[in-house]
Give the backbone structure.
Amino acid sequence: MKGDSRREKIIEILRHSDNAVSGGSLADRLNVSRQVIVQDIALLRANSHEIISTNMGYILLEDAVISRVFKVVHTDEQAKDELNIIVDCGGVVTDVFIFHRAYGTVRADMDIRSRADVIRFCNDIEDSSSRLLLNITNGYHYHTVIADNEETLDLIQQRLQAAGFLANLKDYEPIDF
């Protein structure tokens, strides 16, 4: 299979997948190496395809999907509640990041789409010596959330506010992440 047709097939696979698709899975399906997939993804991104990489694989963001960044603050124990609010309203948590005055922006992919994903994530943290990224900045952090429409993002914002999780931006924080 030639490069152009392989990249079209990658878009087709990602477009029709309900979940993130791993590079290994794409490589197996297209009978190429994972390195070829990484190069193809880079070319697709360069050609204006919005593909995000997560710890579970690649996701194609279609034009109908919109995003919003929420600045939040909470304790480790409240992380599960915060994530459940977002997925229960129909949002997908694509990442978590902090803005540190010395280190700048530190970001990690998440791809949390359901309560099952929330449980898996929380169990992974509990079963390891790892700590949540929010601990570096006293509980303050950000999530990029994608949804099908603005109303869903507005609902998520209202619910996060009602739970006391939303935080205000400080003067030194960048507005555009």
Q: What stands out?
A: The CA atoms of residues 11 and 165 lie 36 Å apart. The radius of gyration is 17 Å.
